[in-house]
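Ops channel
N.P.: pipeline sanity check, posting one input/output pair.
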């Protein structure tokens, strides 16, 4: 967890504006449960909440604090779907199966909205849509084909294609064209995660913080040990995403952590001139820029990835050029917060959801996990005893392992990523 600590979460806008929560104790005993969950991000907390609602005794082990993984530090952009678009799904799996995968995934949106409403989670929810700014004319045809596929195959008409000038009315910068999705939005992800944790505790879940799982034994029962205690349980759910290392061999080579960085400016008096639509925005670059306004009128901007293990020494200076390139009027603007996180990606950009016996896992949402993680957790909780059809749909997508064993995959992968990023710049 050392790398995660270097990523400045304490200095994030989200921690500075977090709703008040209670701290959870460290595990110092050996305790029994029906289900032990490793990781208190949205996957783990959603799994815990849904399992507890089914009457199970659930214990969550979190190595750091609730929500201090990707769930509490991301861009907060709520876009239904998978990193691989509808077109990609149909190309790979055909129309019928592509439609099943897409519809199963899309359920994540309503699930999250229902949880926010049912548990009265205050998380600055805005259902203002999502704009994707298209940076190269040659990419427009792809987006038109995606919108057509959504309409024709998926029966969904939420995505429209915009001209350059129509896009500028929604976000005040130059794009060659854009898309607008009416089913997206944004929220304060840490406050959502903290709300999910509270809902889980209210349903009877016990959470331990500063209690990293360091060993997983399967026989005679599942036993997950920390430095100062253990949980013995019938089932385990691994929800550590990019930070989970070494507990389960099936997982190790299938997700790759990539450092990604965000800043928040000071509150801007004319923030709505930058994004008149108040939508969530991203662009079509391989190393994507993504941004939106916060509830108090800051620009929250994510840009730049680093494939080498160390984060940039000065995260604000690392992200600033991407901000100023997008909005030249912000040249020299004040940056109040800068932090980073680890995006976990898979070779296919599809999540890795599965099980080995009574140990289940879901991770690798490849940068589109704000909605999916809550769904992933729910699907695991409902599949402890018997796989549900949703579980089977996702488990069948099992991504290929990264080439090379752990020692090799990073350098190979770094080379591939750098190549794509460079192609963008050209
Ligand atoms: C910078 C950034 C920006 C992003 N922006 C967006 C966005 O705008 N929209 C979007 O859809 N997606 C976005 N994502 C992706 C999204 O945040 C993630 O896919 C999602 O939050 C993953 O949730 P999770 O619960 O699976 O993992 P996490 O939230 O990372 O939770 C895992 C938890 O497990 C804990 N843990 C790990 N190992 C152990 C262990 N051995 N013992 C105990 N605890 C352990 C960690 O401390 C952590 O708290 C972004 C990600 C990052 C990093």
């Amino acid at each position: 967890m050392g790398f995660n600590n270097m990523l400045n979460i304490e200095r994030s806008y989200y921690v500075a504006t977090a709703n008040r929560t209670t701290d959870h104790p460290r595990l110092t005993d050996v305790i029994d449960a029906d289900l032990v969950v490793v990781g208190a991000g949205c996957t783990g907390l959603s799994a815990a909440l849904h399992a507890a609602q089914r009457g199970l005794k659930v214990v969550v082990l979190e190595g750091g604090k609730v929500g201090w993984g990707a769930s509490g530090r991301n861009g907060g952009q709520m876009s239904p779907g998978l990193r691989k678009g509808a077109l990609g799904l149909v190309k790979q799996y055909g129309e019928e199966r592509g439609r099943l995968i897409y519809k199963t995934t899309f359920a994540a949106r309503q699930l999250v909205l229902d949880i926010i409403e049912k548990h009265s989670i205050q998380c600055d929810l805005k259902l203002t849509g999502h704009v994707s700014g298209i940076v190269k004319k040659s990419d427009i045809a792809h987006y038109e084909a995606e919108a057509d596929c959504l309409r024709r195959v998926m029966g969904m008409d939420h995505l429209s294609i915009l001209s350059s000038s129509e896009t500028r009315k929604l976000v005040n910068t130059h794009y060659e064209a854009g898309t607008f999705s009416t089913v997206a939005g944004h929220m304060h992800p840490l406050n959502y995660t903290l709300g999910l944790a509270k809902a889980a505790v209210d349903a009877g879940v016990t959470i331990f913080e500063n209690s990293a799982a360091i060993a997983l034994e399967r026989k005679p029962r599942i036993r997950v040990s920390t430095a100062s205690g253990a949980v013995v349980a019938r089932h385990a759910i691994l929800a550590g995403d990019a930070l989970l290392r070494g507990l389960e061999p099936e997982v190790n080579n299938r997700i790759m952590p990539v450092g990604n960085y965000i800043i928040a400016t000071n509150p801007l008096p004319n923030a709505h001139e930058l994004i008149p639509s108040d939508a969530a925005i991203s662009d079509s670059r391989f190393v994507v820029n993504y941004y939106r306004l916060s509830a108090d009128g800051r620009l929250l901007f994510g840009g730049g990835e680093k494939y080498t293990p160390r984060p940039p020494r000065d995260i604000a200076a690392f992200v600033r050029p991407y901000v100023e390139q997008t909005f030249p009027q912000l040249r020299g603007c004040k940056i109040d917060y800068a932090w980073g996180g680890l995006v976990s990606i898979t070779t296919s950009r599809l999540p890795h959801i599965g099980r080995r016996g009574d140990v289940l896992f879901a991770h690798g949402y490849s940068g589109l996990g704000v909605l999916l993680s809550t769904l992933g957790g729910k699907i695991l909780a409902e599949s402890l005893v018997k796989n549900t059809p949703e579980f089977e749909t996702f488990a069948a997508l099992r991504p290929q392992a990264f080439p090379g064993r752990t020692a090799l995959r990073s350098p190979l992968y770094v080379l591939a990523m750098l190549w794509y990023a460079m192609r963008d710049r050209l």
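N.P.: looks fine end to end. The radius of gyration is 21 Å.
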